[in-house]
Amino acid sequence: MIIRSMLALALLLPLVTANPAFASLPAGYGNQANDGRLALATANPAFASPAFRRVWERTDYPVQQGRGNHAWIWGPGPFTAGIYEAYQGGAEPSRLVQYFDKGRMEINDPAGDPRNPWFVTSGLLARDMIDGRVQIGNGDYVALPSAPIPVAGDPNAAFPTYADLRAYARAPGRFALGDAVAERLTPQGRVPAPEFANLAATRIVQVSNGYGIPRAFWEFLTRSGTAYRNGRFVRETPLFDWLYIAGYPIADAFWVRVPVAGVPRDVMVQPFERRVLTYNPANPARFRVEMGNVGRHYYRWVYELPFADGRQALITAPPRDSVVGSPLVVQGFERGIAFEAAIGVRLRTASGQVLATAYTMVQRPDIGVPGPFSASLVFIEPETTTPGTVEVVVGSPADGSEQIIASQPVLIGGLGGDLARAVALVREDLAARTGIWPERLGIRFTEDVTWPDSALGCPAPGQGYSQMITPGFRIVLEAAGQPYDYRADRRGALILCQDLRPQAPIGAPISLPARGAVSTLPLHVEARLERAGEPVTLHLLFETGQSLSQTVTPLAAPDGGGLVLNSLWPPTEPVRINTQRAIVQIRDRQDQLLAARLLTILSPDDPLARPVELYWLAGEQLRVEQRPIPRTLQIGAATLEQLLWGPPPGLGLSTAIPTPAEVLSYPGRQPNWGARVRLRSLVIRDGVATADFSAELRAYGGGSARVGAIRQQIERTLRQFPTVREVRIAIEGQTEGVLEP
Q1: What is the per-residue DSSP string for 379-426?
Q2: Is the pLDDT assigned to residue 80 strictly greater than 70?
Q3: Considering the chain, what is the average pLDDT of its residues?
């Protein structure tokens, strides 16, 4: 998510007449207030957009000036500054919104025509508070328990809340034209209320979306009134577009007894998508029909209630004590404490084993402000159902230590009968082989099978197998009209049986990128092939049809195999690659597919990417490169990993850190060495960063100039982070006597 400064973007626009309620933003905007309330909700904020002001002025400026004879449509003014809330699938990754007592104004496409009546839209707040979901995109939501906030009456009213209405929303409508709303809603359900049967206000005069709208509400929604337009007070019929303001009704109207200013009153209520309408016959005529304070309620529901008890984060999915499987979607809300909005989500068993970890971004409107998050965990389930815990963790920017800020007990479902997971695995494998995305692959048939041995019914000639009963599945997929016969056991092992010969998973030779990886460009590829010396081609095929290719020659491993240790770089020409799925393939000179893997590539400006600085050599001088990498709590370690893969080609840059070719040919190479330098760990404590590298770093070969260059590259790269003031370099845990000339 692009983080913006609300102070810079809020437009401090004067109204037609002086009005202290719309002065300027208060000093200190953007920080948490001392009383713990969000600074987004503050006294006398300005309109965040002139378009917001125009919408408000049309119906509510006459009320403010005493020229209108209707109740507030939005309220006396905004009670928050402009907020850039995350919104996926729109023109930008966030949208400008502003909260009013009665609703929320939104601009989904800032490049749209401001003259279009729908340039500013009204949020579907009542719907989402009843349904228990926060919309973060055109079709994307994060779960949140339905709002436990009263829809009518005083703030301390016990019933009904938005959560209480969930059982009635979208139920079949019960009223037809001419019927009367003569039912009372109680905690025990609907009960007859004949005392309201003869009130003209309760008679159904319009049916929309399957629900009857009583006369009192329909007359309010379609009334005439004094509006303010083009600098003049004018008479408008109707005063506003009722669908624009209220949306469609989503439940029948009902009567309820609630306290109003401490006095019990009978009030008729009906929820619409965007608003809640109330009718109080005890009020003066002008205020008998009013709109509920859904804007205030929604703001409190999302930004305040999840943290009212002092918690730092709230996990809203999966539900507590539910049975979970892979992939597991974890959603929730974080208070605003996570450094750079980066959090970790993980699943561990009761014994402490971590089954999966993912890093994601909190979709915050601004620094220190709460926001939703969502992450997907892919893991191999245990043999039997076992207790587990979903955890949300944040890292300390000072020393890298972790803090668990939320946890949720769950039951991790065992592998028994997990056909769906097996289908997902084989679809992923076939997608990598064929370039046809998983959801487009058909299933011809599936069956449970108990194999007599570990060959899964497709043995390789001359190979021995464990003679043990192996339960599993046979899954036949279809791609481009051709069948593909897969065999899988219940632990996740699978083979493709072609011509009665087993084919290993196509991603098996590739160790980087990992299965299900989310990466940026350059994409680093590490794979082990049967032969060295014969050129192969790396292909990166994007879902949009774009592609990148590079021909490389595998290095010779000590055992004679081939090692691919190369990077696929973004195109040099200005071609935009958006965030999307991709397939990395390795093909030989005959275009035979040797290995492939599905992954996701992030665009450089994706909210899940962040730029870091890498230091390379240009002759004897250091030169910095700025490179986007996936956001992670271990940002320092991830940056050093990028440094170990080397500089971009074609810019005259080099690295003093030993390359794989140098490591493999180094005369002092030891039998237990690998093919490249790896980072074993990075620990930051009290401003001191200790970077521990594998033994292959010793392949630098000596020389004071090279030693100095290695140290400079590592130190300058780490010192970009404000928590690092000193860097120590270790090899295999030893800091003494390393990197000597």
Answers
A1: -PPPSS-EEEEEEEEEE-TTT--EEEEEEEEEEE--STT-HHHHHHHH
A2: yes
A3: 89
> 690 has which bridge partners?
683, 728
Residue 602 backbone phi and psi in degrees, to 5: -90, 140
CA gap 485, 617 in Å, rounded: 52
Residue 735 to residue 551: CA distance in whole angstroms: 39
Backbone angles phi, psi at 688, to 5 degrees: -105, 120
Task: Reduce the secondary structure of 618-666 to three states and give it as a string.
Answer: ECCEEEEEEEEEECCCCHHHHHHHHHHCCCCCCCCCECCCCCHHHHHHC
All domains of the chain, ordered by start, with CATH?
6-302 (no CATH), 309-405 (2.60.40), 419-495 (no CATH), 510-601 (2.60.40), 609-731 (no CATH)
Crossing angle of helices 635-644 and 704-718, rounded to 10°: 150
d(CA 627, CA 205) in angstroms, rounded, equals 63
CB burial class (10 A; 0-12, 13-18, 19+) of residue 590? Answer: exposed
Residue 500 neighbours by CB distance under 10 Å: 11
Distance between terminal CA atoms of the chain? 46
Confidence (pTM)? 0.63
Length of the chain: 741
Q: How far from chain centre, in Å, is Cα 436?
A: 25
User: Which helix H or strand E contains 126, and what residues bound it?
Assistant: helix 125-131
- What are the contacts of 461-465 at 24+ separation with CB within 8 A? 461/501
pLDDT digit string, tens, across residues 265-315: 999 999 999 999 999 999 999 899 999 999 999 999 999 999 988 999 999
Residue 730, CA distances (Å) to 344, 710, 719 in order: 27, 12, 17
